[in-house]
Amino acid sequence: MIVAFSISPAAPDENGSVSAAVAEVVRIVRESGLPNETNAMFTNIEGEWDEVMAVVKRAVDVLAAESPRVSLVLKADIRPGYTGQLTAKVERVEQHLQGGRSAAE
Question: Which residues belong to any copy of the Thiamine-binding protein domain (predicted)?
Answer without folding.
Answer: 3-94
